Amino acid sequence: MTDKIETAEDIGFMVNATARAIQDTAFETVTGEAAWQLAGRILCPIFDYAKPQSYIDGMKAARQEFAGIADDADLQEDFQGALAALVGAGALASLEAAVSADAWAILQAHIRVVR
């Protein structure tokens, strides 16, 4: 795990990119604010408490691995690849789908930057 600190800009990048991926997929009925809220529910451990502890812990670790993403083109590319995998797995359709698919593990699997 990295010792970098996740910033508000990093979180904003991840949530906005995830919301765009939600809007750009077959889940087109989720748009605008609803897409942003769903992205937050999927990525944020405290946004929605209806997640198992293993998902919360895994997502915290996955997000920490993306610390610095706001200013790192390689991490941004890795995150976009992870989003494509999440879309392919149907994991962005709902919070339940993200939990079922272990979205955090998909995110971690797409980090190729060794730090």
Present the secondary structure layout:
Blueprint: H1 8-24, H2 32-43, H3 53-65, H4 73-88, H5 95-100, H6 103-109
Helix pairs in contact: 1-2, 1-4, 3-6, 4-6
**Can you tell me the overall shape?**
globular
Largest sheet: none
Number of strand elements: 0
Low-confidence residue ranges: none
Q: CA-to-CA gap between the ends?
A: 8 Å
Radius of gyration based on Cα positions: 13 Å
Mean pLDDT, all residues = 87
Range of strand content: under 5%
- Name the helicity range: 55-70%
Helix/strand-derived class?
Answer: mainly alpha
Number of helices, counting only DSSP H or I runs of 4 residues or more: 6
* Topology as a string of helices (H) and strands (E): HHHHHH
Could you describe the 3D structure shown?
There is one protein chain. This protein has 115 residues and is mostly helical. Helices cover 62% and strands 0% of the residues. It is built from six helices and no strands. The protein has helices at 8-24, 32-43, 53-65, 73-88, 95-100, 103-109. Helix 1 (8-24) packs parallel to helix 4 (73-88). The longest helix has 17 residues, at 8-24. The radius of gyration is 13 Å and the shape is globular. The N and C termini lie close together (8 Å). The mean pLDDT is 87.
